Amino acid sequence: MLFSLIMSLGRTKDLLQPGYDTDYNILRWAQGYGFNLEEALLHLTRHLKFRLFFDLDNVDKIKDNKILKQYFPLGLVGKTGKNNHLLVVECAGRIDLFGILRSVQMSAFVYQRFKFQEMMLHEINRMEALNKVQCSSIYILDLDGLKLDTDLLSIVTGPYRLLWVLVYTNYPEWIDRLVIVNAPTYVSVLWKAITPLLPERTRNKVRFATTLEDTIRELQKCCDMKYVPKHWGGDLIDSNGDPMCRDRISIPTDSIPKELYWKPNDISPPYNQLDAIVISAGSWKLLTIKLGPCDRKPFLALNRYSERAYSMAVYHSADENAIDQSIDEMREWAPIFDYPSLPTVDYLKVPALGPGVYKFRFGNEQAWFRSVTLYYRIRFVDESDNPLPMEIIS
């Protein structure tokens, strides 16, 4: 079966970059879709396009977002000592989710999270090359400090869930087991709300540990405890004698000061200064823009804002007469994904494909009844943000 999937990659070999084309990377896609090779290839192809659009092969060169680095850190502890696994810790209960949503633009969040994922993937690939065995991670999600408030349920089932889906859809099978520890009693309410939104394969990886003894018992199944920080029942302490191993795990301790909350500026103006499009439930709309010839490297500069989730994809044709062309006949530059609603106006700047016709597809497919208003500003600029000649067709 895997051989068939690898052979099928001939259709997308131009998308597959050196370094990603390992047997284990391909195997993860087959596993993630129950060895339904047609479905696996569909999602793998979408991911490869996503990689190119966001230039994930070079995401390590992007500077860390200072707010996310300090207030939303993720920690790779290292190997677990069993089954070629890695250990990852996220102290989610200490994260100021409310403040994060009001401080960070969506694209900045996506880049920071995918920077971590690519670092994880690099380490996974390194261990696979070294040990000739498939590698994945044991993920400790520590909810100690999680506070119940009126916004928590909507955040967890809304933007936080969609951002997790965006990650997991692009990195299938990177988690072998998700161990949730120090969960407050009311977490069952959150879990009941989230469970229907998760694929069964993902749900089956989750384990709850309500006591330290439960945590130790669960981690002993998949870890040599000398590689687990002492705070979570293992034997590991860092060079400073810290049982939480802060030399490799950043632990958020404070709420985000309000002075760090996002504020509109020239690059990301208030949403009411953007163009708007209303998309009815279950439908989508196209915006067509023609980029003229230019002697400078073009970039897409995109602002977007919505009060509810929406989907987006971008298509391109170098033929300037492709205005009436179907998107099925054009190159899918940015594959379709759902994006969450955040209080900030997003700003994304990526290298464009050159002159020609661009079609932006915005959708509201997940809604049954309610329309959504998407606010946007689409520009093509050079590296210094000087505007390039473009024509809005529709």
Q: Mind explaining what this structure looks like?
A:
- It holds the Pfam family CRAL_TRIO.
- Residues 64-240 form the CRAL-TRIO domain.
- This is CRAL-TRIO domain-containing protein.
- The longest helix has 26 residues, at 106-131.
- The chain has eleven helices and 14 strands.
- The mean pLDDT is 90.
- The protein has three domains: 2-54; 67-260, Phosphatidylinositol Transfer Protein Sec14p (3-Layer(aba) Sandwich); 271-392, GOLD domain (Jelly Rolls), CATH 2.60.120.
- Helix 1 (2-8) crosses helix 3 (37-54) and helix 2 (23-32) packs across helix 3.
- The strands form three sheets. It has a five-stranded mixed β-sheet with strand order 1-2-3-4-5. A five-stranded antiparallel β-sheet has the order 10-9-12-7-14. A four-stranded antiparallel β-sheet has the order 6-13-8-11.
- The chain has helices spanning 2-8, 23-32, 37-54, 66-71, 97-103, 106-131, 152-157, 159-170, 187-194, 200-203, 212-220; strands at residues 75-79, 85-90, 136-142, 175-181, 206-209, 275-279, 284-291, 299-306, 310-317, 331-339, 346-351, 356-363, 372-381, 390-392.
- The radius of gyration is 22 Å and the shape is globular.
- It is of the alpha+beta class.
How far apart are the first and last residues' alpha carbons, in Å? Answer: 45 Å
CATH class of the largest domain: Alpha Beta
Report the major sheet.
5 strands, mixed
Q: Judging by the overall fold, what is the CATH architecture of the largest domain?
A: 3-Layer(aba) Sandwich
With strands numbered from the N-terminus, the spatial order across the biggest sheet is 1-2-3-4-5
Structural class: alpha+beta
Number of strands: 14
Judging from the principal axes of the Cα atoms, what is the shape?
globular
